[in-house]
User: What shape does this take?
Amino acid sequence: MTKYIAALDQGTTSTRCILFNSSAEILASCQKEHKQIYPRPGWVEHDPDEILKNTITVIKETLEIAMIDVNDLAGIGITNQRETTVIWSKTTGKPFYNAIVWQDTRTDDICRDLESDGGQNRFRSKVGLPISTYFSGPKIKWLLENVPEVRKSAGAGDLLIGTMDSWLVWNLTGGIDNGKHITDVTNASRTMLMDLNSLTWDEDIVTLLDIPLQSLPEILSSSQIYGVGVDPISGVPICGILGDQQAALFGQSCYSSGDAKNTYGTGCFLLQNSGDKPIISSHGLLTTLAYQIGNESPVYALEGSVAIAGALIQWLRDNLGMIKSSSEVEELARKVDDNGGMYIVPAFSGLYAPYWQSNARGVFTGLTRYITKAHIARAALEATAFQTKEILEAMEKDTGIELTTLKVDGGMVQNDLLMQFQADILNVPVIRPTITETTALGAAYAAGLAVDFWKGLKEIEANWKEDRIWKPDMSDKKRSSQYNLWKKAVTRSFDWLE
Assistant: This one.
């Protein structure tokens, strides 16, 4: 009987299920968006129950589209938006509050208090991360302090805490009926609570944040059998978990130290495999777990995180009404030859790497009467490429490795104008693989390795194929001039909030 691997891709704006065969070809897929909730400026929430409901729906519909039975699945892998945090009751299975999304900035005061004793890098040597609203730890503390039912349930031992992978696995393995409360090393490394070397919760930091240790999930590898699913995946092993950006790194076959990929989605995330030892960045990057296969040694990565990439195009569509669909932005941007001297710094929720300024806010600079909506569209695309260049420069300073090519994936890589500008501004070739759904593919690979669907990394690497390459075609003078103006524009966004 032919078997398939299913991947659940629980992202910031939607949840997808994708079926892969042994050649890593897509058999079928289904996607469902969920509501973005903005209770106040800077606050971003999701409804965990809506996401769970959508997850069950996309699994069922994908199997129907493929015309296969659940028994045809060899295993299922999960990849997820990483720092988004949910807290729920283990006796009722109900969330106590909406999930607080990774983009949310409500924990700014908590972070400032933590920085007051030791600065922003207070925990970096242990966890590889600066203190930031981005990560789960401060979100958990906010929920404990501001939602009365959460603190009460913590005292009663009824509280479960996790990122979206933990929420889905617990529910898909039985929920209140002995559901597995787990996470993997990649997601745990994004909480600001996990020791990078021991791969365990750091009790000092957990205690400092007043988080009940027993409510946190068990940390396991990225590829092993965690448990067996219940309806709609009854009997199917859940056997792979990777945070979305690590999943894309894994799906892009970046298995050697120095290999790098950039994912262009809601945000933009450049990861570079740094081998079996964590490199603590001194240039504003994150040190994170890349993956761990079973009992093998963990593999680490350096990461540059950009909060707003594709989300800027959505903003042009939804807030300004400049385009009717995100796909129209390229056609609009092509109506002009350049950005007309304007730059957009999309610091909607502060600046992430390499600046880590939570009080920055977005700016349009260089505006003149000459500027049209086509220039704005072009500047919006270029903002993603400029932010990527800043991260790559920091990465080269940390590692001493000069990147020679950049593998790319995510929704925005279908935009030829952006990809060409990315190659131009980086001055390195940009390569798109034939399968651009590398986030889901990485989760499928992790799951498949755990159940011998694939026999090892070499077999997986053989599946990777180049679809298109963009080569740099910009003069050094023009590249330098545009980048210098971008850097100038970024400084205008600093310290906007008092």
